Amino acid sequence: MPGRAGAGRLVALLAAVVALVSGCAGSVDPGELPGVYRNEGAGAELRLESDGTFSAVDVVADGSSGPVDFSGRWEWLGGRAGSDFVYLSVDSGGLGPIAGVQLYPSGANAVEFRPDPDGPPSLKLTRTAAP
Q1: What SS3 class is residue 120?
Q2: Cα distance between residue 53 and residue 100, in whole Å
């Protein structure tokens, strides 16, 4: 019977690790996403409106081009896309012919553009009070 006891402990340990990791990752409440996000150093600003529209000013979304302005609609894709992110459907602006951009929540009051979901962010913006 020592094998069963060891397997039971292993299952309990794995369950505890999963609970701990999922608790650390935190979840995003899409109702709390609307707001103004800025990166003062880059002069960038992103406004996520509660009506599902957004506007971006002086944002470097891909890490390789210069800052541009663009706007459109945003949608929270948490849980449906295998990763928690905001999808920005670009309607107009300086990004040219692009379908959209992924925006990742980072902590409680920040978002970041990451051209490669596994890579470093090209730009991180922090929630600020609207002017």
Answers
A1: coil
A2: 13
The structure's pTM equals 0.73
Q: What is the pLDDT along the chain (131 residues), one digit of tens a residue?
A: 455 554 444 333 333 333 333 333 457 888 899 999 999 999 999 999 999 999 999 998 776 788 999 999 999 988 665 678 999 998 888 777 777 888 999 887 999 998 887 888 989 999 998 66
Tokens of 80: 């449906």
> SS3 of 21, please?
helix
CA-CA distance, 58 to 11, in Å (whole number)? 50
Closest C-alpha to 39, from 112, 116, 101: 112
Q: How far apart are CA 32 and CA 72, in angstroms?
A: 19
Amino acid, single-letter form, for residue 123: L
